[in-house]
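HUMAN: Now follow token order:
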Amino acid sequence: MRIAFFRHKIMLLVLALAIVFTSFCTSKFFREIRSKHWPRTTGIIGQCYLHPAQGPGGSTAFIPEVVYLYTVGTQSFAGTRIDFHTEDHNYSKRYAAWRLRNYAKGKLVQVYYEPGAPQNAVLEPGIKRDQEWLLSLGLGYIALLYIAFLFILYHYLKARAKLHAPPRSPSKRADDVKAV
């Protein structure tokens, strides 16, 4: 019985860690969603270029990069984020150049900045369509982990209560047998 309790505790710990980890990973998506409502200011593109990177199989790939300057209050900042995922991937030269089509040097742009941390800014706020399904998947996974956690916790507590329950008296057992 002690081994069963130990297994329950290990499963509960693993599920709790999985819930925390998945919650931590999905929290960035909520920041992306909130960014649509961030304050905005006008900025100017200072640099716009394709950064070469190593692609799949050793091929040359590219990352579209910009540097934009903007002011919030009396403070000036330089930002580099186009959206929340562009810098996470390598692209073909054609696609990377296409991503930069709206960001020519000297162009005025709307810069969305995080309230309370204006150094965090983005040109294209919000969550992208291809990231929405990841968020949905993560939330579904959290729900399943939570249900599994509650299921195992219920069985653990039930087994523990049974182990610590006072023994039944012999007369009650005889009454139970007669009733059957």
